[in-house]
Amino acid sequence: MSWRDGRSRPVVRKVYFTEQEWGKACALWRAGGGHRTFSAHARELLMWGSVRRVVIPADTDRLAHEVARIGVNVNQVAHRVNARGHREPGDVQEMESLLREAVGILSRICKDAQDRIDGSGWQS
Asked: Which residues form the Bacterial mobilisation domain (predicted)?
């Protein structure tokens, strides 16, 4: 069995660096963010000639607060159901409403991120 089996990118090319060049290449890769591997970073540079860094700051404090609030509400519904031993029709609607709220928050975050990417001039 070859290392190429099942790989989406079976073509390998070697690039040689001096120690100084390698240090600079790694520093540029780390500073660029966005690429998990050096291979992905190098591939984009070779194929497209540049790497654009798009920073999408998430309001993590606000997000954590909103998710915690929704989680508290979900726990309250669950405790109410457990205390009664059965669920009422309104319990399901309340849970669906809470889930829609959570999905709405995440959708707004995703839309904001997409708008930032679209505004950066980056294209896939």
From this structure: 66-108
